[in-house]
From TrEMBL:
PROSITE patterns: NODB. Keywords: Carbohydrate metabolism, Hydrolase, Metal-binding, Signal. Its cofactor is Co(2+). This is Carbohydrate esterase 4 protein. GO terms for biological process: carbohydrate metabolic process. GO terms for molecular function: hydrolase activity, acting on carbon-nitrogen (but not peptide) bonds; metal ion binding. It comes from Mortierella polycephala. InterPro entries: Glyco_hydro/deAcase_b/a-brl (IPR011330), NODB_dom (IPR002509). SUPFAM superfamilies: Glycoside hydrolase/deacetylase. Residues 1-210 form the NodB homology domain.
Length: 210
C-alpha cells in the first residue's frame, strides 16, 4: 500500500479500510509513498518516500511493514542496498498473470487516473469478462509447483481482478492463498513488521496528504 497515489492514505475512508484489513489479520506491506519509480530517485529521496509511508502506517495502525514491493518491479543494486539498509524484505512477482495489461491500462498518477473515463453498461461488462477470461487462462497455465514459493501478480485498476472471484478461482485449481511472509516461511505475524506499537489517536491524524 502506498500513501498518496490514487487515494490519500489519511482520508477517513482509507484509514477505515486499512484498519479493517489489518484487524482481519491480513499482512500489510509497503509501496513508496507516491508510487514513484525508485530507480529515478536519489538515495535520500528513496528514504524520504519510505519514511513517509512508514509514519502513516505507524500512526494509523501502529505497525511498520517489513515487506515492500518496488513500483513496476524496478530495483537495481543501488535501490536494493538502500532498502536493505532500511531493513526491508523486497518482494517481487515472477509469474505475471496479466491483470495489469487489460486496456485501459492502470495509470501511474492520481491526476491521470482522475481523467480516465469510466466504462459503463455493456462495454464495461464486456471488458471485465475479457479481462477475467485472460487472467483465468494465465492462471491455468502456471505449473502447480511454481506457486510453492513464488508470487503471482494480480494487478489492475478493476476491483474484479483481485476480488473474491479471483481468490475462489485459484483455490478451485488447488492453490492455497496465504500472506507472502507465510509463504516465505515466516509464520509469526509479529515478525511481518519492523515496529509494533499503539496507533495514534484518530482525532489527531491529518485527513489529507497535502
Amino acid at each position: 500500500m502506498n500513501g498518496d497515489n490514487w487515494n490519500c492514505i489519511y482520508h477517513p475512508e482509507s484509514r477505515r479500510l486499512l484498519k479493517r484489513v489489518y484487524d482481519a489479520k491480513h499482512q500489510i506491506a509497503a509501496h513508496p509513498w507516491s508510487h514513484r519509480n525508485l530507480e529515478s530517485l536519489s538515495d535520500k529521496d528513496i528514504r524520504q518516500e519510505m519514511n513517509r509511508i512508514e509514519e502513516a502506517f505507524r500512526q494509523i495502525i501502529g505497525v511498520v511493514p517489513r515487506y515492500m514491493r518496488p513500483p513496476y518491479g524496478e530495483h537495481g543494486e543501488r535501490v536494493r542496498r538502500v532498502l536493505e539498509e532500511m531493513e526491508y524484505i523486497i518482494v517481487l512477482w515472477d509469474v505475471d498473470l496479466l491483470g495489469h495489461s487489460a486496456e485501459p491500462l492502470a495509470t501511474d498518477s492520481s491526476d491521470e487516473y482522475s481523467n480516465e473515463k469510466p466504462m459503463t453498461g455493456s462495454r464495461h461488462r464486456h471488458h471485465q469478462d475479457s479481462m477475467t477470461s485472460k487472467w483465468a487462462e494465465a492462471v491455468r497455465g502456471v505449473p502447480s509447483t511454481t506457486l510453492d514459493r513464488n508470487a503471482m501478480m494480480l494487478g489492475g485498476i478493476y476491483q474484479e481482478a483481485t476480488s473474491i472471484w479471483a481468490v475462489e478461482y485459484v483455490q478451485s485449481l488447488g492453490y492455497e492463498v496465504m500472506p507472502v511472509a507465510r509463504c516465505l516461511g515466516e509464520d509469526d505475524p509479529r515478525l511481518w513488521y519492523k515496529e509494533v506499537s499503539p496507533p495514534a489517536d484518530p482525532e489527531s491524524l491529518p485527513q489529507t496528504c497535502r
